[in-house]
Amino acid sequence: MVKVVLAQKLLQANEEVAAENRRLLEEKGVVMVNLISGPGAGKTTLLERTLPLLKDKLGVAVIEGDIYTTRDAERIAGTGVEAVQINTRGACHLDAAMVNEALRQLPLNDLDIIFVENVGNLVCPAEFDLGDDYKIVVASVPEGMDKPAKYPLAFQKAFAALITKIDLLPYSDFNLGAYIEQLLTINPNLKIFPLSALKGEGVEEWSQFIGRVAWKRRRNLDVI
Ligand SMILES: Nc1nc2c(ncn2[C@@H]2O[C@H](COP(=O)(O)OP(=O)(O)O)[C@@H](O)[C@H]2O)c(=O)[nH]1
Ligand SMILES: [Mg+2]
């Protein structure tokens, strides 16, 4: 009983800071995109491919969430895009207060879009609102077909699903058509992008989509 009350209080406190983040970002005209996946799905690799396609047209920055290391932020810095690293020191997800700290370190007046790479985990990040505009779930072919059924919350809350590592389809029993059907059963509004960050297939389509969505969102136009 006590545990449940505590969890509710934590989530409520998080909601308040998330609302503050949302207000700040709206005032500054910045769209925040929260990338959620299990470890190794390919979030950082995808960002390394996506950022070069966006950075000349839009002001872009990245907030990297990791339990301990700064490796992903270093990879992002290699693209010339500013990255702020958050180390959660054991926590399995980012929370709104951590993101608030990171936002204070970024030049918000110069930005249009901030990508947040959440801690690799399909469970906790789905429960903690960061004040983001969009949650994007990233699921890769080698993870297998059953993850949406096992971890439905991330897929239910997502605006788009990226099915990554499709270059591995010929070597696996993964059925792309059946997977997409499954995603749409869980969330009929999901925008779905099969892609390979390694080979480049589908990356341009996804990059254009998210760039267009961010641009429209801040002009209060219908995004789709
Ligand atoms: N075959 C293949 N491997 C990929 C692809 N994207 C990422 N990887 C590999 O998957 C591993 C984990 O990628 P990473 O981007 O670090 O995943 P993250 O933990 O979600 O950030 C690395 O060895 C990547 O090279 C892809 O599209 N195809
Ligand atoms: Mg990563």
Short recap of the structure:
The chain is an alpha/beta fold and 224 residues long.
Structure description:
This protein is an alpha/beta fold. The protein has a single domain (18-217), classed as P-loop containing nucleotide triphosphate hydrolases (Rossmann fold, 3-Layer(aba) Sandwich). It has helices spanning 2-28, 43-54, 71-77, 96-104, 124-127, 147-150, 152-157, 176-186, 203-217, and strands at 31-37, 60-66, 82-87, 113-117, 134-140, 160-164, 191-194. The model has no long low-confidence stretch (mean pLDDT 95). Guanosine-5'-diphosphate binds at residues 37, 39-45, 120, 164-165, 167-168, 196-198.
Taking the sheet with the most strands, its summary is: 7 strands, parallel
Number of strands: 7
- Distance between termini? 43 Å
Q: What is the arithmetic mean of pLDDT? A: 95
CATH arch. level architecture: 3-Layer(aba) Sandwich
CATH topology: Rossmann fold
> Outline, from the CA principal axes?
globular
Name the ligand types: guanosine-5'-diphosphate, magnesium ion
* Structural category: alpha/beta
SSE string, helices as H and strands as E = HEHEHEHEHEHHEHEH
